[in-house]
Amino acid sequence: MAGYIGSKASVVSSGAERKKTFTITGATTSLTGLNYTVGKVHVFQNGVRLVDGTDYTATNGTTITLTVAAQSGDNVVVISQAAFQVADLPAGTPSINDNGNATAITIDSSENVFVGKTSAGLSTAGVQLDATGSGGFCRAETCLTLSRLSTDGSILDFRKDSTTVGSTGVVGGNDLYIAGGATGIRFDSDVAKIYPTNGTGAVSNGAVDIGEANFRFKDAYLSGGVYLGGTGSANHLDDYESGSFTPTVLFGSNNSGTTYSSLTGGSYTKIGNVVQVTGRVRLSSKGSGAGTVAIAGLPFAANQDGGLGITFIQNTGSYLFQRFLFLTIDITATKAFLRLLNSSGNFENVQEGSITSSFDVIFSGTYKTNS
């Protein structure tokens, strides 16, 4: 009968390979206790390779039958390769091993590789690797952690063929950057700021645009302001708005019974603390009001005394049409008083008695506000 002393298994790049040595103690034709894939087994007797099908038969994966019996003292070596053979690992070792405590890796018939799951699908936790690029890392927490040790630089490179087209990395110790070519952004980890950068995360100044003439972003929502053309306080634009307002005529503190034409209305544009207004007031009836005449309802209060120029004034049958008029705004007020240049060369307030119900004024001008 046959016997053997020692056996060992080794794993090589081409698959699982096992070498088993039989030291023959009596004439025998049967070599048992094997695990091989039919057609992937080699037998050597006393150093001479035997021919499969002529010198031996190997058809069932577990035994080999010699055509001529081996004799006592012969040395027979069987080298076999199997689709899978159990490695000599300690029981309980996590592995692709019958002795392991869990399935570590699954490879399906399409050669997809799974870790932590056994079938494809990005709704199941685990790792899926495949040649189509549809794989991924799935779990209910952080899916992938990339850590660069010690030094600054790229953590993840993006390539087209063999050329790097972008990267994500760390700079300045803890700042994250994302860059493509010579353009990128850097996130300051110490303060709430984002900087333009070059391709390695180094901060750049005045070199990166946001959009261009034919490729614009839509809207920008800012809770603060914009520095235009410089970084000083004089370059800070903190407000821009436009809208409409309804100017009215105020006679002293009373404009009871005053009615207006449908042509009455105004619009404004506010840039920073400068307000540009245009408007028109046309009375249908001036009512029972009396006193100094003012145009009220300006959109913002003035922060200093100033004036608005009248571009056209019409009041049929009245001297108001023929003399120079001016609108002056008192500080903190939202009204402008009508004043005219008298014969002495001084400005005086226009009174209610000087106008008729056909009063029609068109005005425009600029003033400053604290709003």
Helices and strands in order, then pairings?
Blueprint: E1 7-12, E2 15-23, E3 28-31, E4 41-45, E5 48-49, E6 56-57, E7 64-70, E8 75-82, E9 105-107, E10 113-115, E11 126-129, E12 136-138, E13 153-160, E14 163-171, E15 175-180, E16 183-187, E17 194-197, E18 226-227, E19 236-237, E20 240-245, E21 248-251, E22 259-260, E23 265-271, E24 274-285, E25 293-296, E26 306-314, E27 325-329, E28 335-341, E29 347-349, E30 360-368
Antiparallel strand pairs: 1-2, 2-8, 3-7, 4-5, 4-8, 6-7, 9-10, 10-11, 11-12, 13-14, 14-15, 15-16, 16-17, 18-19, 20-23, 21-25, 22-24, 23-24, 24-30, 25-28, 26-27, 26-30, 27-28, 28-29
Walkthrough of the structure:
- The chain has 371 residues and is an all-beta fold.
- It folds into four domains: 7-82; 105-138, no CATH class; 147-218, no CATH class; 242-368, no CATH class.
- 0% of the residues lie in helices and 43% in strands.
- The chain is built from no helices and 30 strands.
- It has strands spanning 7-12, 15-23, 28-31, 41-45, 48-49, 56-57, 64-70, 75-82, 105-107, 113-115, 126-129, 136-138, 153-160, 163-171, 175-180, 183-187, 194-197, 226-227, 236-237, 240-245, 248-251, 259-260, 265-271, 274-285, 293-296, 306-314, 325-329, 335-341, 347-349, 360-368.
- The strands form six sheets. Strands 20, 21, 22, 23, 24, 25, 26, 27, 28, 29 and 30 form an eleven-stranded antiparallel β-sheet that branches. It has a five-stranded antiparallel β-sheet with strand order 1-2-8-4-5, with no helix packed on it. Strands 13-14-15-16-17 form a five-stranded antiparallel β-sheet, with no helix packed on it.
- Strand 27 (325-329) and strand 28 (335-341) form a beta hairpin.
